[in-house]
Structure formats: structure tokens, C-alpha cells
Design goal:
about 140 residues, alpha+beta, GMP Synthetase, Chain A, domain 3, 4 helices, 3 strands
Length: about 140
């Protein structure tokens, strides 16, 4: 577990090759991981989880007194489950808060045994992309 710290989302099971103890549980965990890896979740459910997470722990405030804001989230793909979060400025969310949001999704939506990718899309990024698209269309 210490060497695989980057895979904290993975289920752990201790088995015995000599006695065969708990070997039959491996396939159950594989099935669970496969189902959660392919799971699709509606935008409404994702936003409910976000609202509950925000009510328990609001986003941190920067030194300038500005607070991050999450507008909404939606699942953009599966394999692995990828959730895009639309925020005012992604730089206002530190790594601890990002891990907190990921943990809430994992706990509430049951993504056991599967990694979750979170894409933090800030309003600035979207505006730059839109203006670049407009410039290329001319």
C-alpha cells in the first residue's frame, strides 16, 4: 500500500496462494471495478453531489479575498469516468480541495476500484477558446 500510494482509489484484498484463502473474492472486485469504470452518471446527480459537498466545505478563499465558485459539473466520458467542473477560476482551487471533491464523488457515486478524472474548466479558458474560434472563422 505504501508503494502504490498513487492508486489510493484501488481496492485492496489480502489473499493466500498457499491456502487459497479469499482468492474467489478477486473476481468480485474485478466485476465491481469494471462496472464503476463504465458507469455513466447524469448531470443532475453530479450537481446534487456537488451541492452537498459545497454545503459541507466551501471552496477556499485566496489571499486577495476571492473565492472559487463551481457553477456545475457534468460527466464527459467514461473509461475512466471523467467529470468536467465549470468554475470561475481553476487556480482558486488548491490541491486539497480538489482531492476533497474527488473523494465526495467517489463516496457518493460509488466509483470503487476506478480512477476518476476531474477536469477543472475555468471561465477564462472558455472565453479564450471562444475568441480563438471566432478569429479562425473570419
Amino acid at each position: 500500500q505504501d508503494r502504490l500510494y498513487f492508486m489510493e482509489w484501488a481496492e485492496t484484498i489480502f489473499i493466500s496462494a498457499m491456502t487459497g484463502q479469499r482468492v474467489n473474492k478477486i473476481l468480485d472486485l474485478v466485476d465491481t471495478a469494471y462496472e464503476s469504470h463504465n458507469r455513466r452518471v447524469s448531470t443532475a446527480v453530479i450537481n446534487e453531489v456537488l451541492q452537498e459537498a459545497l454545503s459541507w466545505h466551501s471552496p477556499p478563499t485566496t489571499r486577495q479575498g476571492k473565492q472559487g465558485r463551481i457553477y456545475y459539473g457534468t460527466q464527459v466520458s467514461s473509461r475512466p469516468p471523467t467529470i468536467a467542473l465549470f468554475v470561475n477560476d481553476r487556480d482558486r482551487f488548491n490541491e486539497n480541495y480538489r482531492r476533497y471533491i474527488e473523494a465526495q464523488f467517489r463516496k457518493q457515486l460509488g466509483f470503487a476500484g476506478s480512477p476518476i478524472r476531474l477536469i477543472w474548466r475555468s471561465k477564462k479558458t472558455r472565453e479564450v477558446e471562444r475568441s480563438a474560434n471566432r478569429a479562425t472563422k473570419v
